[in-house]
Amino acid sequence: MAYETCVIPENNNDKADSGTQSNKRKRKKSIVWEYFTVETVGAGCTRAYCNQCKKSFSYITDSKLAGTSHLKRHISLGICQVIRQKNQQSSYPKTGDSQDTANLPKKRPRATPGFCNGISFDQERCNHDLAKMIILHDYPLHIVKHQGFIDFVRTLQPQFNPQCLNSVEGDCVAMYLREKQNLLNLINGIPGRVNLTLDFWTSNQATVYVFVRGHFIDGDWNLHHPILNVVMSQFPDSDDHLNQTILTCLSDWNLEGRLFTLALDKSFASETVMGNLRGLLSVKNPVILNGQLFNQNCYARVLSRLAVDALQTMRGTIIKVRESVKYVKSSESHEVKFVELKQQLQVPSMMNFLIDDQCKWDTTYHMLVAACELKEVFACFDTIDPDYTMPLTLDDWKQVEKLCTYLKYFYDAASILTAQPYPTANLFFPEVSRLQVELTHAAFSQDTFLSSLILPLHKNFDQYWRESCLILAIAVAMDPRHKMKLVESTFSEIFGENAEAWIRIVEDSLRELFIEYNTQMLPFTETNGDEGDEIMLKTEAYQEGSLDDGTGFFR
User: Fold this and answer.
1) Cα separation of 444 and 227, whole Å?
2) pLDDT tens column, 15-55
């Protein structure tokens, strides 16, 4: 359709002045006039007519101009029935046929140098985000010299000026220093102490790296666990190496005198190394409870090592199960036969077994559990598939089931680490004590196979239990739902006649911790005397008869 030239016709009877006449004859720039035509309908009255539905709208009345907003709404909001019907008939416009489709009016873009959608181009911000991208995704620095990257960025923003390698490296270092200073300011402001964990990672080139991670709670009760240092070492189990790594970390982050505990995987450090480390760190870090809480083993690694040791003990049988699963999953025809046999035998299992990742013991556990539920199918599978020559005996399946029973204890105990973002310390005592009880019963079982399987595991876990039960018991005793009742009942089951001595150790430790933290709060109470007195008055009712011997608070 050829649209009329949008010029308002001259009306000789119009008494408007010459300036008004001159403005009326100007060519209109709004895109809305591609859809409307103006006509004079009377003296001093001009209306706009839709070219599609022929509906009229007010435009000029006497000397008042109505504008074009209501005309745009008529087109863009689908009020025009003709345009709406055409849009429903064809979702895609036909090229070159303006009568069949109606393009909604849009504002014509205006090119403004240095601006994109009203946002000015900022080279420094781009440099900052580029350095952040390189750090986050571990990109090489020379990505800024890749022609494909340069072309892509300049397509997005022609004004972007690629940096040289030295500039990008400087931006990355500057960002690291800023983040380190922010973290240092945060650590300097925390009210409590810091726990450190040491972890070791070995690269493909057999290079050992030591990761030092801090764990602390800030003044707003938010938990933080940043990596404070990463050190490459050829001798991670040497005294000098561990000592120097930790002392350097404490010095760099102003943590002298603020270290509470140190946890590390003891498979990487001997008792001699641990003793020397405790003595060295105790010089500038006053220890609590004679250092009993200072060195702790890693809970996750203990569970992982126990599970791996159990799987290694039965590696021959597990290989048979894995090969059987691989045989079924290797071919669609094998899997179809397996499913048909399962239906014939009416095996109720709904689990879908997958081949495990041998680097992740939990995937092996899930594979074994699924295979055990389908053991009847595996036992008869060679009758319909003569090529299957790896059936397990009935005794093999019984041993796998016993193994899965205790792998489930490890799996459940490890689940508290992933069940919630920040598991609190009071959650660990019930799981660890339950695992200690179950391993003890199995280690001294009359079942020869079960006893031989669990006894080495119990020996290793018993050492972890005796080293960690104190701090775990203290944490659960702080839980007002349990206090000392859960500790007393658990210790009675585990230690038997010696339970009373262990319970007394926990109670004495709680009193000592109370005195230690109360001493730390004295400077605050003295400098804020009135407020401190008010706090003590509010808590006196709860402390009556309990501060002399300490038993009232913990019971």
Assistant:
1) 42
2) 444 444 444 445 666 778 888 888 888 887 888 888 888 88
> Which residue stretches of 314-425 are H helix?
315-329, 332-345, 361-373, 375-380, 394-415
Residue type, position 393, single letter: T
Q: How far is CA 222 from the centre of its chain?
A: 15
Q: Tell me the pLDDT tens digit for each residue of 512-524.
A: 888 877 776 555 4
Helix or strand holding residue 260 (H, E): strand 259-264
**Token representation of residue 156:** 């997005």
For residue 143, the 8-state DSSP code is: G
pLDDT digits (tens, 9 = 90+) for 343-377: 888 888 777 778 888 889 999 999 999 999 988 88
Tell me which residue of 194, 78, 174, 190 sits closest to 130, measured CA to CA: 174
The radius of gyration of the chain's CA atoms, rounded to the nearest angstrom, is: 39
Give dist(CA 495, CA 503) in Å, integer: 10
Token couple for 546 = 């309990």
- Per the structure block, which two tokens stand in for 334? 């094998």
The answer to whether residues 429 and 494 touch, using CB atoms and an 8 Å cutoff, is no
Predicted TM-score of the model (pTM): 0.63
325 vs 356: CA distance, rounded Å: 9
For tokens 């290989």, name the residue.
Answer: 319
Closest by Cα among 510, 441, 519, 434 to 479: 510
> What's the chain's length in residues?
555
Q: What is the pLDDT of residue 226?
A: 92
Q: How far apart are CA 514 and CA 521, in angstroms?
A: 11
Cβ–Cβ under 8 Å, residues 31 and 16? no
Q: Bridge partners of 379?
A: none
Confidence of residue 94 (pLDDT cuts 50, 70, 90): very low
What percent of the chain has a predicted confidence (pLDDT) above 90? 29
- Of 433, 405, 416, 199, residue with least CA distance to 310: 405
How many of the other CB atoms lie within 10 Å of CB of 293?
A: 19
Parallel, antiparallel or unpaired: strands 36-42 and 45-50 = antiparallel
Higher-confidence residue: 518 or 239? 518
Q: Strand runs (DSSP E) across 126-249, as ranges?
A: 194-202, 208-217, 223-224, 227-233
Strand ranges, E, within 130-193: none
SS (H, E, C) 11-62: CCCCCCCHHHHHHHCCCCCCHHHHCEEEEEEECCEEEEEECCCCCEEEEEEC
Widest CA span in the chain: 119
Termini Cα distance of the chain? 91
Look-up: residue for tokens 């995937």? 363
